[in-house]
Write a structure and sequence with these properties.
Blueprint: H1 8-15, H2 19-26, H3 34-47, H4 53-58, E1 65-70, H5 76-91, E2 95-100, H6 107-115, E3 121-125, H7 130-140, E4 145-147, H8 163-176, E5 184-186, H9 192-207, E6 215-217
Parallel strand pairs: 1-2, 1-3, 3-4, 5-6
Helix pairs in contact: 1-2, 1-3, 6-7, 8-9
C-alpha cells in the first residue's frame, strides 16, 4: 500500500497556520513574518514535505524554476558558468533545470526541452548569431529570456563579459614584456565571444604595429588546446 503524500494542509495543521500562509512561505512572500516562516519551515522539515512542482505547473503557478540551455558541460567554461548560475539561483530560492546541447542537437530543440518543463524563465548559454537568437526569443514568447553568448547586435536581452578588452590587455601585457611575435589560440567561429576576442587581438596588434604570427582555433575542449 502506497503511503499518503504530505500535503500543504498537513503542514498548516502542524504549524498552526492557514493553508494560504504555507503557500506564501513556499512562494517566498515578504508578507510572512520571520517567526511564522520559521514555524512553517520547521513543520515542513518534520513532515518531510516536498513541494509538488508538477502540480504547480499544471495549476499554472510560478515554480521558482529557471531553465539553462547550455553548451557541453564537459567543457570548462560552460561548466563553470552553469555552476555559478546554480549557486546564485539557490541563494535566491530558485531551482535550476539544465538542458545541454550537443553536436547533433539544435538550439531550438534544447530550449523546447526546457519550455516543456514549464520553467519560469530561461538563460541561454549557446553560441548564437542575431538571427538565431531572434528565433529563440520568438520561441520563448513572453517568458523572460537572457542570452549569454550572442552577437551584440542581437535585439534580445543579453549579458556579456568584456571579451574584447581582455584580449587587448593580454596583447598589451605581452608587448610590455618585450614579445613581438604573438599568436592566438581562439575558440570556434560560431561563438560570439570568440569572434570578439579574435577581432580585439587583431586590433591590438595593429595598434602596436605588429603582424599576426599564428592563428589556431579550437572547440573549447582541453584536447583542442594541444
Amino acid at each position: 500500500m502506497t503511503a499518503r503524500s504530505v500535503t500543504l494542509d498537513d503542514v498548516a495543521r502542524l504549524a498552526g497556520v492557514s493553508y494560504q500562509t504555507v503557500s506564501r512561505v513556499l512562494n517566498h512572500s515578504a508578507q510572512v513574518s520571520p517567526r511564522t516562516r520559521a514555524r512553517v519551515e520547521a513543520a515542513m522539515q518534520q513532515l518531510r514535505y516536498v513541494p509538488n512542482r508538477v502540480a504547480q505547473q499544471l495549476a499554472g503557478k510560478a515554480t521558482r524554476t529557471l531553465g539553462l540551455a547550455t553548451s557541453d558541460l564537459a567543457l570548462m567554461a560552460p561548466a563553470q558558468i552553469a555552476s555559478a548560475i546554480q549557486q546564485r539561483a539557490a541563494a535566491q530560492g530558485y531551482h535550476l533545470v539544465i538542458a545541454m546541447a550537443n553536436a547533433t542537437s539544435h538550439a531550438q530543440d534544447t530550449v523546447h526541452e526546457l519550455l516543456a518543463q514549464r520553467v519560469d524563465a530561461l538563460l541561454i548559454n549557446l553560441p548564437l548569431d542575431a538571427a538565431q537568437a531572434a528565433q529563440i526569443q520568438q520561441q520563448c514568447g513572453s517568458k523572460p529570456t537572457l542570452f549569454l553568448d550572442v552577437e551584440r547586435s542581437a535585439a534580445v536581452a543579453q549579458c556579456q563579459y568584456r571579451s574584447a578588452s581582455g584580449a587587448q590587455q593580454a596583447v598589451d601585457h605581452l608587448v610590455a614584456l618585450g614579445h613581438r611575435q604573438i599568436g592566438v589560440l581562439n575558440g570556434p567561429a560560431s561563438s560570439a565571444s570568440a569572434r570578439a576576442r579574435f577581432s580585439a587581438w587583431q586590433q591590438a596588434l595593429a595598434r602596436h604595429q605588429l603582424v599576426p604570427d599564428c592563428v589556431l582555433s579550437g572547440d573549447w575542449s582541453a584536447a583542442s588546446g594541444y
